[in-house]
Structures
1.
Amino acid sequence: MKRPTKILKLFTFLLLVSSCSNKEQILEFENILGKENSVTLTSMVSEFENGFLKTKYPKLSTEKAYSEYLTELESNITGNWERPTKKNIDKFNQSELKKVIYGLPDSIWVEKTENKNRTDYRIRQKYLTVKGEYKIGTLEASIPKVSDEDSLTATLENHYDINYIGKYREALKTISKEDKFIKKYLQMTNEAGMLDPRMVAYEMLIADLDFDDYFVKRLIVTEIVYRL
């Protein structure tokens, strides 16, 4: 009769340890990310859950709604999936968090080339470091000839890069010590750069993640939902 009681006590102890560990990870993550950025990110998660998910999947729990959202996204061949509202996108665009997560285009120009079948362009991008300073990088690319260079430039204005030296990336690194999926995500993006949101969705689904997890939710919002 005493054995079940001991098992129950052990189970309760493990839950408490897990809970405390998660709280410590959250505190460490938010400390690196910064108070303002953490508040912005939490607000984005809340708006996505209480707005988009509840509207689209009213009969599902939040956890199951996340899973269904990723399932539909992963199988979306066209790439034309629903975006956050303009109001929420504008709020994100005006926040510091966007600069922390992404390397952003600072200037774009088309280079003259002797090859009449190609268009060469350059993107000067700025990256906000953990110290609050900007580092500059330049992307060089050559693509099949385009007739409308102004349209190309307008499109490239939304060409974001991963901010490898920003607070968000640094915060994720601290969590990767204990979180296998985040560790895998960091490795994949180190090797391949920005990933197609459908690939991220696929990797999350096959990993059988807990969609009620603090960090999983934030990765979904930053790497999929707000990937403009």
Note: Residues 10-21 have pLDDT under 50 and may be disordered.
2.
Amino acid sequence: MTAQKVSAEDAIQRWNQRRLREATYLWREENSPEGDAFTAGLAAYRIGSLTHDPLWVTSAKDKLLESTETLPQFAQARAWLGSAYALIARDYPIQGNWQVFPGVGFARIYNVLQAKKYLDEAVVIDEFDPVSRLVRASTLSAMPSIFVSKESVGTDLQTLLSWVEDPSSNPQHKQVLQSEAFRDEFYLAYAQRLEARGEKTAAKNAWDMLSRSAGIKEIKEFARWKTISLTQLQ
């Protein structure tokens, strides 16, 4: 069991390293006046989320903010901008009781509120966009319940589940819903959510499905271990 866990964690580490290399390449290609601000912002976001480096997250916020100003009706730009603000809050150096003091202590709360604002705006712009829905659900699920309704996270995930299981129910985004990459990301978030809520049987089924259908081999390996570990707990 221990060996399987180490192997699964190593698989996720390899996946993250590959994503980091890909994001670094995209940043170098797009971080210029002639480059695409959204792609550069998403690359910086990925680097910041994996490295916990606040400088990268700040770069992501700036580039994604630029893309929302250039393309105000592009829902995904606002969704990722909101998630970038959440990363700034996550990695803010002021933690614990210091957050309640005026000045720098309120900065973290401000970033959380900005995150929720942009995430909600993204879904208002295009309520059927599965990427924006998934970004909102994944981001809000990690926030303190004082700021967000956990029921809203569940609603987003259930809506996404209905679309993934029947892409024809959301024809405008059918191609995204059928894509292997999106389905891997969704079921990964869905399985984690079920497990966090203590719904072990449902979580095991979700991990089992992911272990058989995931297109990314590292996710498949990790999901296989999660399925085994939850089976042994039942």
Note: Residues 2-30 form the longest helix (29 residues).
